[in-house]
Write a structure and sequence with these properties.
The chain is α+β, with helices and mostly antiparallel strands. It is 52% helix and 15% strand. The strands form 2 sheets. It has a 6-stranded antiparallel β-sheet with strand order 3-4-5-6-8-9. Helix 8 runs antiparallel to helix 12 and helix 12 runs antiparallel to helix 14. The longest helix is centred in the C-terminal third of the chain and has 69 residues. The radius of gyration is 41 Å and the shape is elongated. The relative contact order is 0.14.
Length: 641
């Protein structure tokens, strides 16, 4: 192998090892030295998405039914919900941006969109609670997009140096034949040259704005000229150049802004994940209590059907005795048909709500026939406290400002804007850099043995033996600095109007002002939401108490109307009207109870307390594995034979 190839292959290996030492290690596997050498040039392993559900769902199923408590529903969502799973990958994306920033590259951005989850099935019973169900916020391109625009790709400001070392190796081999107009200089009429020029270079930039470059260039020449003192010959040059930015691009705080923004974005990704967990948990709670309310509404409709059927049977017997007119039987039968239609509608809503809830709690539930056909049996019922806890609104607002992840996201975004403005201000300055150059030369070869033209003697006989040798002689001369060069200088580039940089800085300052306004709007909205949520809880509790009282009074009214009808002092139509009103009062009670629990969930959400109140651990949500066991299945009563 030619000596030139040995040289640059050796330097290539050294340069690769140098780059490896400065490369952040994000892998978990450390193999042999060879695998460590090539790791930076092979793709990192990214595991595939696991679309299999955890076994918690199987543990809750029995005889085609899923016995589901609220805590089990939340646990299933933490383990299987795809919105939460998608947010987990957002954290990994932020970490990849950190790796990119450590190399001095621009950031690719962070997705901060929050998915709200599906809505409950349309129901007149739950129409009053729909407004309280939409408590989540969306960030990114909508919602808080102005606040979080600092996580986008940086496009303005002084150029960030490339922090990864660069190795450049090249080699050029030529064989040339040049006819000569005179043989006086070359000693031949056709100069034939065989050359080989390997070059190896290393370059590294630093956060201070310093760039260091080292280069070794070689030229191996073999010619047919008898006039050369040495043939073949080796000439080499080793140079070290250091440049430093003094104005634009100067300083660590200017050049490490992408790294600091990436660190903030990594924190933002954690906050986005927490916000997604809050939104999903709130959505699951709403879907669960909606299912409970729909079940209760179905029972109300079924009870109404039983009352109408009983009234129909009573009217048939009384008509056989001639106590009532036949038209009353027709009216009673019509009421039975209407009640049966209401039951069918309520059953359909329950089935639809079960499918919606299962789709939120599973990764592939709609693909599994056993899960599709399984009926969801909620084991928890809505329970009201004896007395509502009284908490000052100032305390609730303070909790919201401390625990809502959007507040911290806004603060980090403002911090990112200040960091990027520093780079934009640096771009206003002229480009001024100073450099220093140290360069050494070396030359070696063998005495030229090509005979001269007639009448000319050997020039090589008078050659200096100091240059006699091979590449080792060249290296000795280079390291001994026998033929040194020195140089210093500066480069100044100054735009005479600088309008682009001025526009960039103005734009960033204006964006910062908008972010400050959005931050204040966010705080005002949080405070307003807390006040409204507390008021909604108070109103919902009062509305439920009123609904219960109205239902009790209506039941008493129905009992009185039924007795009057049995005594013949009231018409059948009077009983039907009172019975319809009772169904309406019972449905209103179900609605009021659902509205109350929605209001409580909304208050927990806007104050940021929903996760601790529901015993949700962010670490378990991040791991996708809830440690608490599933709730025990209810004991079924044995059927009578």
């Amino acid at each position: 192998m030619p000596k030139s190839n040995v040289l640059w292959i050796g330097l290539l290996a050294a340069g690769c090892a140098y780059g490896q030492l400065h490369m952040p290690d994000f892998s978990q596997n450390h193999g042999s030295w060879y695998s460590g050498l090539v790791r930076d040039y092979t793709p990192r392993y990214v595991p595939p998405v696991d679309f299999a559900n955890t076994n918690r769902l199987d543990q809750l199923m029995r005889a085609g039914r899923i016995y589901l408590s609220l805590q089990d529903a939340i646990a299933l969502a933490l383990e299987n919900n795809l919105d939460i799973e998608n947010a987990r990958w957002g954290i990994a994306i932020a970490e990849s941006d950190q790796l990119r920033a450590s190399a001095g590259q621009l950031l690719r951005g962070l997705n901060t969109t929050i998915n709200q989850g599906p809505s409950s099935t349309a129901s007149g019973v739950l129409a009053g609670a729909s407004a309280l169900g939409s408590t989540g916020t969306t960030t990114g391109s909508t919602g808080q997009g102005g606040i979080l625009s600092g996580v986008s790709v940086q496009l303005a400001g002084a150029a960030i140096p490339n922090l990864d070392p660069l190795l450049v190796a090249s080699e050029q081999a030529f064989h040339t034949t040049a006819p000569q107009t005179s043989n006086f200089v070359t000693g031949t009429s056709a100069l034939i040259t065989a050359s080989n020029s390997p070059v190896i270079a290393l370059q590294k930039s630093y956060l201070t704005g310093t760039t260091v470059g080292f280069q070794v260039s070689n030229n191996f020449i073999n010619q047919n000229s008898p006039q050369n003192n040495f043939n073949p010959s080796i000439s080499s040059t080793a140079s070290l150049q250091v440049s430093q930015n003094l104005l634009q691009g100067f300083g660590v705080s200017t050049n490490n802004r992408a790294i600091r923004v990436a660190r903030n974005n990594r924190k933002v990704s954690d906050l986005v994940f927490k916000q997604q967990v809050i939104t999903t948990v709130s959505n699951v709670i709403g879907l669960y209590w909606d299912l409970v309310s729909l079940d209760q509404n179905l029972k109300v409709k079924q009870q109404a059907l039983q009352l109408n059927q009983k009234l129909y049977e009573d009217n048939k017997r009384r008509a056989e005795l001639g106590a009532i007119a036949p038209i009353d039987i027709v009216q009673a039968e019509a009421e039975v048909a209407a009640a049966q239609g209401d039951v069918t509608t309520a059953e359909t809503q329950v089935l639809q709500q079960e499918q919606i809830l299962k789709s939120v709690l599973t990764k592939n539930g709609v693909d599994t026939l056993a899960v599709i056909d399984a009926r969801v049996v909620p084991t928890d019922q809505i329970r009201l406290p004896e007395n509502e806890p009284v908490r000052p609104v100032q305390d609730l607002v303070a909790e919201a400002m401390a625990d809502r992840p959007e507040v911290e996201q806004s603060r980090l975004s403002l911090d990112n804007s200040h960091i990027n403005i520093k780079g934009t201000k640096s771009e206003l300055l002229p480009q001024l850099s100073v450099f220093g150059l140290l360069q050494n030369h070396g030359l070696a070869g063998q005495y030229n043995t090509i005979p001269p033209l007639p009448g000319q003697g050997f020039i090589s006989s008078g050659s200096n033996p100091f240059f006699l040798g091979g590449y080792g002689t060249v290296l000795t001369q280079l390291f001994s600095r026998n033929f040194p060069d020195y140089g210093v200088g500066f480069n100044l580039t100054m735009p005479l109007r600088n309008r682009a940089a001025q526009a960039d800085l103005i734009r960033d300052e204006l964006n910062l002002r908008q972010q400050q306004i959005s931050d204040r709007q966010l705080q005002n909205n949080i405070k307003l939401n807390v006040v409204n949520a507390r008021t909604a809880v108070e109103q919902a509790r009062a509305g439920y108490d009123t609904a219960v009282k109205a239902r009790v009074l209506q039941e008493q009214t129905l009992n009185g109307a039924t007795r009057k009808y049995q005594l013949g002092t009231s018409s059948f139509l009077d009983v039907v009207i009172v019975q319809r009103d009772l169904v309406t009062r019972q449905s209103a009670e179900v609605t009021a109870l659902n509205t109350y629990v929605k209001a409580r969930t909304n208050l927990e959400t806007v104050t940021g307390e929903i996760l601790p109140d529901q015993n949700v651990s962010i670490d378990e949500a991040l791991a996708g594995k809830v440690n608490r066991p599933p709730s025990p299945l209810p004991v079924l009563e044995p059927q009578n034979k």
